[in-house]
Design goal:
Length: about 425
């Protein structure tokens, strides 16, 4: 069934993820129809796909069109319809109703939603639609980030799930996990918990300080608040609001969007996509400015005073001594270290507690955090610290001790199942 998928329709071709998905499918040899409300917007999506591929030839397998003129025809010919519209449930349901009207009964329909309810999108659709509908969450930018979540709906046929996973893995080179239909799924649920928690801390501690304290040395490709600027404050808000409104878990308070971000978004401050307004950071000529969350104004970045354990971790990571670096975090005695441990151990606790609730196994959480976020997998951090030491640190911080961590400690087993490059590449701060 996966090999039979040849023709793909992208709805929302002019969006960042729509254009990115178009490039991924076309570069893999699929025929792709890029649809938007207006032809010039679809053409812009095709151009963005060419730029992502760095090859004009990718357009030879692509066509553009509009919803009014081309949706019925292209959907009727499609093997896979990929909806990549804005994260608006009503908007998605409207277009999925149109797709249901025109699709072949055996065509797969996928939403690229980053966290909305798959079941709600399928509600009211035909039996055939519901059996062939699922989520395929690509991470941005999809031509670079290969982590992918597949999210079945309640009635999705097992053969359709297998076909989608096989296509993504064998033909698109994706690192795929299958996740349950919960708000923000696995990757964004875990990742944005940490990002929003750090944004909350910025009110008291300052932007430059928290990005320095929770920087790449703690197991991430970019500092947290710089990551939020890259993602976009509006996207960040949509994800954390969705989880805050629809999940009551142990980290519920961490998903409350800070008031200064609410105000900033209302004023048009969205991060890197609004360079004039900036986000946590803003460029003025060659100078980088940082936001003061209390005043809403930017001022030249003042480099935080060096913190001994942070500098030690950076130096050890650079030469591949990851266990020694984590030991430096474990053994440091200061308020700075306490704060850093709370965030880093909070990541380990929260992510591994999703096993059984959203993810099937700890290895799935590892895969999506490594290949979706470019963060160190949580079980790798456990192994570097030691399972028993991790449990003690969690207990000292009054954080939840996940069942899978308890089991690993009781059996004296290592948790991480991948290779060193799967996490070493992120621990280079």
């Amino acid at each position: 069934m996966a090999d039979k998928i040849q023709n793909v329709v992208i709805l929302g071709a002019n969006g960042t993820m729509g254009a990115g998905a178009g490039e991924v499918f076309a570069a893999a040899g699929f025929r792709v129809a890029m649809l938007a409300r207006e032809r010039d917007k679809a053409d812009a999506g095709l151009k963005a796909a060419q730029n992502a591929a760095r090859a004009e030839a990718v357009a030879e397998r692509m066509e553009t069109g509009t919803y009014d003129n081309d949706l019925a025809r292209t959907v009727a010919e499609a093997d896979l319809i990929f909806e990549s519209l804005a994260e608006d449930l009503a908007l998605k349901r409207h277009f999925l109703e149109l797709v249901d009207r025109h699709r072949r009964r055996d065509a797969i329909v996928a939403t690229g939603s980053s966290g909305l309810s798959i079941a709600e999108m399928a509600r009211g659709r035909s039996d055939s639609f519901r059996k062939h509908f699922l989520g395929i969450h690509l991470f941005n930018p999809p031509h670079v980030i290969v982590g992918t979540e597949v999210i079945p709906a309640t009635e999705t046929e097992p053969a359709v799930i297998r076909s989608a996973v096989a296509m993504l893995r064998s033909r698109l080179g994706r690192k795929v996990i299958v996740t349950k239909d919960r708000p923000a799924f696995v990757g964004n649920r875990v990742g944005f918990k940490v990002l929003n928690e750090v944004a909350q801390l910025a009110v008291e501690h300052g932007v430059a300080y928290v990005d320095y304290l929770i920087g790449p040395h703690t197991g991430r490709a970019m500092a947290p608040l710089a990551t939020v600027d890259l993602v976009g404050w509006d996207v960040h808000k949509a994800i954390v609001d969705n989880v805050h409104q629809n999940c009551e878990d142990e980290a519920h308070a961490c998903f409350k969007l800070p008031a200064f971000m609410e105000r900033g978004i209302a004023e048009g401050r969205l991060g890197d996509k609004t360079p004039e307004q900036g986000g946590f950071y803003k460029r003025e000529g060659t100078e980088t400015l940082a936001l003061d969350p209390k005043t809403g104004s930017h001022a030249p970045v003042k480099k935080p005073a060096p913190i001994q354990f942070v500098e030690k971790m950076k130096a050890l990571n650079r030469v591949g001594k990851y266990a020694e670096a984590m030991a430096a975090l474990r053994e440091a005695k200061s308020a700075d270290a306490d704060l850093c441990r709370r965030v880093v151990l909070g990541y380990v606790s929260y992510s591994l507690a999703r096993v059984g609730e959203v993810a099937e196994a700890a290895a799935d959480v590892d895969t999506i955090m490594s290949y979706g976020f470019n963060w160190a997998p949580p079980t790798a951090l456990v192994d570097l610290l030691g399972a028993r030491a991790t449990i003690k640190m969690l207990s000292d911080l009054k954080l939840n001790v996940p069942a899978c961590l308890e089991q690993a400690a009781n059996h004296g087993a290592r948790m991480f199942k991948g290779g060193v490059l799967d996490y070493g590449r992120t621990l280079v701060g």
